[in-house]
Amino acid sequence: MKELGRGGEWWAHPLGIAGVRLMPGHSVVGLDCHSWSGHGRQFPMADYALAHLLPSAEPGVQVGGVMRLRVIGVRDMDLHLNLVRTDSRLVLRGAPGTRWRPLLARQRRDLEEGGLVPLWDEAEASPYELADEREYTSLVRTDRDLAWLGSGLLRRIAVFQNFSTAYSTRSWIAGNEWIFELDTHRDVSLAHDAFLNRLMDDVWGLPLRVMRRYCSCGLRATALRGHQCTFYLEHQHPDVPGVMQIRFRWGDPVHGDDVRQRLEDLNADRGWLDRVLPRRTDRARGLAVREDESR
Q1: Percent of the chain at pLDDT exceeding 90
Q2: Contact 64/119 with Cβ under 8 angstroms?
């Protein structure tokens, strides 16, 4: 969750995850077909996942990727992963046509040509990873403190697609906070309460509670470009560390006016697009729309 969401890319589904299936002893994470970079380049999501997830080391520099993550097998479109000396298993399922072995070979070749050391085939924790764990103890502790949140959100990734009105979902970690930024178009209701109710549902949601909220929906009519409502959530049990910060942003597209076209090019579901990015019929008829009009 952390590594896939940290980039500034576009995906047909939140964080490029098309769906998650819970299986006995492991989870299957289905990936989108492609990712669209902030530089306007489209490339396979499988490439993006390998570049962000698989650990590699550059002498004297912090290990990149997920430390202790290992490739334990490839079966058709499934890449099997685990963490060293744990029972943790995960399967990345690529889009149809994904060939993991050539992608892994190319990833290894590119790293080695750049003077880096691939670590995903090591049987034990590598000296690079052990050194990082000693030197960056606070970062390692943060990852462990937020593991319950990432695990829970991964299993409920569909909440972001089905119950949010956002067309863009991005995330990153700062300190002990996992920050999610959800952008909703001006022509669509923000509906953050409905999303939070699903996320914190007593049966199907996570054991979260709202610790602070800053809602500016009352200023919506006077907002020229948009506004943001920010919620801070924590575990219902006060001893569990970690905070989830959700920024619900509403207004004009902040990433350009061609957002819908980008998502269409990524084969995003048309029904979902019509819900979160409806076509502007007034502009299609050539009518002018004043940006300072309240809607």
Answers
A1: 71
A2: no
pLDDT value at position 282?
A: 47
C-alpha triplet 240, 68, 94: angle, nearest 5°:
95
| C-alpha dihedral (74, 79, 83, 86), degrees to nearest 10 | -70
**Cα separation, 124 vs 82, whole angstroms:** 12
pTM confidence score: 0.87
| pLDDT for res 193 | 95
pLDDT in tens, 48-57: 999 999 999 9
Q: Which residues pair with 71 in a beta bridge?
A: 81
* Separation of alpha carbons 270 and 250, rounded Å: 21
pLDDT at 254 over 50: yes
What integer is the mean pLDDT of 193-206?
96
Main-chain phi, psi angles of 235, to 5 degrees: -65, 145
State the virtual CA torsion across 23, 29, 168, 282 in degrees, nearest 10: -80
Sequence-separated (6 or more) residues with CB below 8 Å from residue 249: 181, 182, 183, 184, 226, 227, 228
